[in-house]
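Supplementary material to the annual report.
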Amino acid sequence: MVPASSSSGFDFVVAANRLPVDRHVHPDGSVEWRTSPGGLVTAMESVMQDREAAWVGWAGFAGEAPEPFDDGALRLCPVPLSTEEVADYYEGFSNDTLWPIYHDVIVPPTFHRSWWHAYRRVNERFAEAVAEVAAEGATVWVHDYQLQLVPALLRDRRPDLRIGWFNHIPFPPVELFSQLPWRAAILRGLLGADFLGFQRADDARNFMRACRSVLRATAKGDVVTWAGADDAQLGAAPRRVRAAAVPISIDAQGLRELAGSPEVQDRVTEIRASLGNPKVVLLGVDRLDYTKGIRHRLRAIGELLEDGEIAPPDVVFVQIATPSRERVEAYRLLREEIEGTVGRINGDFSHLGDTAVHYLHQSFGREEIAAFFQVADVMLVTPLRDGMNLVAKEYVTARHDGGGALVLSEFTGAAMELRQAYMCNPHDIAGLKETILRAIRDNPAAKRRRMSALRRRVHNHDVQTWAGEFLSALAAAPDRPAKSSSRLQES
Ligand code: GDG
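Predicted assembly:
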């Protein structure tokens, strides 16, 4: 990457709800920004080389935003959110309206017009911030469901830009999407992009169907053509927008190196010993979210204990449930329910010194998670719906010793790629129980063959490949925007 300094703007701009850094305030009041661990930053690094790049996003706390600052070669541009906007745009519309609709309505979505107004206002602010820092003809990569209006709002301000959007979560079937009172506005927002990337081909197809049915647009192959007749934002000229699957992945090399480091290896031994050196460790690692199927998983584990198929101290289940969205009611209820279930299971099946279910409602460092993956003989990834699920990809990569087994829900994006996993339908508790037992009891050679194929797949399609594929698709998108002088006129 080259130093971010250009006064004429940046060639490459990322817009995401969050900046890739977290603020830490020390006891003496001094502030430190730490890069948040995660694949997105690594992916962006690989595509930002030799470009002047900026990242527009919320800094993670309400109130006034800090001035733009540099993190290495990257310019970070914080977008402010008020306390009310955090509640209405982020916790409300993003996480309590869109999130449930986009995840099969596992819990009922909440509709509030005031939340929608906040969502639109914040999207405008993001579009404004990107428009200010992007150089003439720059490439802009907008991320995720929190910013679906940004593509059109940005094109309106800056028709010279090449705009791509990637959806990290599923795109729902039109029958569910149509519940949204603001469905047309959201589609119009997205159609301001040149290229729309989705996790699965089914998500892209769902989007195309929604455009056809809600906007009466023409959708052929993977291109939507729409004149935007009733939309001032897009103008009258028909636009052609491509929508296709570009499945996300992980920083496989980084994780392999971390997993193999002596410190992590030491932790693997320590963790196994703390669990009483069981014969079989079953593991779940999820944000505590109703999409992740933790309740169904616990139900299956509880019944397997009851049937006497598994029992501590030989077989133990560890569930890491990272705290998430705790101010949203559905998440509070989920936590209560899960913790009640864990308590009941342990009450019934644990003995002094032999715990059946180890439940950890905590966040751990990356090293610790990499160690847990290697402790797990069977990894349980059982979401009811998940855009991709990076945990599945991380698990098979962290098991560089070739051991382990992955139980994977067919309702994850990862299931489209990780075909050699032990596939399950988490709604089918009897089937889930059988699959878990098969993953425990299958012969080791068969398990190793599966794991080796899974590891190869992730190795060949890592997060760097993903970012490269997305940007190539964006560069080749059907309608090259005309260079315009609008920005120069503005300044
Ligand atoms: C969204 C989509 C899509 C978890 N606990 C800890 C921890 N983690 C890490 C995992 C993994 C990440 O968080 C979770 O990623 P997922 O993909 O599983 O799920 P979402 O957070 O729902 O992400 C999803 C993803 O976006 C990317 O496009 O795959 O479908 O819902 O990396 O390892 N990391 C650390 N401590 C923890 O306690 N350090």
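The pocket of GDP-alpha-D-glucose is lined by residues 37, 168-169, 248, 285, 287, 320, 322, 363-366, 369, 386-391, 394 (CB under 6 Å).
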